[in-house]
TrEMBL record:
InterPro entries the record matches: 4-hydroxybenzoyl-CoA_TE (IPR050563), HotDog_dom_sf (IPR029069), Thioestr_dom (IPR006683), Tol-Pal_acyl-CoA_thioesterase (IPR014166), YbgC/YbaW (IPR006684)
Name of the protein in its database record: Tol-pal system-associated acyl-CoA thioesterase
Coiled-coil ranges (or none): none
Domain Thioesterase: 30-116
Record flagged with keyword Hydrolase: yes
Keyword line: Hydrolase
Highest taxon, organism lineage: Bacteria
GO molecular function: fatty acyl-CoA hydrolase activity
Claim: Hydrolase is one of the keywords in the record: yes
Length: 153
């Protein structure tokens, strides 16, 4: 796995952990995190998870190799448990719960001091340059297997 800088998080026990801080721009008039921002936090977690596994999305988007793909979110579900507030230190925990031939399902939690604030499930599909479903390339699949928490589907 790639060496991660502190701002990209770490991979530990088959999950990626990304530390974040809640800024003023993240909050609503009541001083709590606006609900849609949890989706942004989760996106950052997924992107940095891939980066930590040495899966370079920017290079794949150039479609220089016939096996190149892009990931697109086809389903997202979030349960909001407790609010995060201005200046909170939170962590986004991301793991792969299902690894299919052309898709993956990621389980994500946003936590503060270990307490779950929001829980999400995101399904992403692999598409080729023509926006058609594509099999996950072998090297990408092998890297993702390193953090699968549940058996392959």
């Amino acid at each position: 796995m790639a060496e991660l800088s502190p701002h990209s998080g770490i991979i530990k026990d088959r999950e990626h952990i990304l530390p974040l801080r809640v800024y003023y721009e993240d909050t609503d008039a009541g001083g709590i995190v606006y609900y849609a921002n949890y989706l942004k936090y989760m996106e950052r977690g997924r992107s940095d998870m891939l980066r930590g596994l040495s899966i370079n999305q920017a290079d794949m988007l150039k479609f220089l190799d016939p096996d190149d793909i892009k990931f697109v979110v086809i389903r997202a579900e979030v349960d909001y448990v407790k609010p995060a507030r201005l200046d909170d230190e939170i962590t986004v925990h991301t793991s792969v719960s299902e690894l299919g031939n052309a898709s993956l399902v990621m389980a994500q939690d946003v936590r503060r001091d270990g307490e779950v604030l929001a829980r999400g499930v995101v399904k992403a599909a692999a598409l080729n340059q023509n926006d058609r479903p594509a099999r996950l390339p072998g090297d990408v699949r092998d890297k993702l297997k390193k953090i699968v928490k549940v058996e392959d589907s």
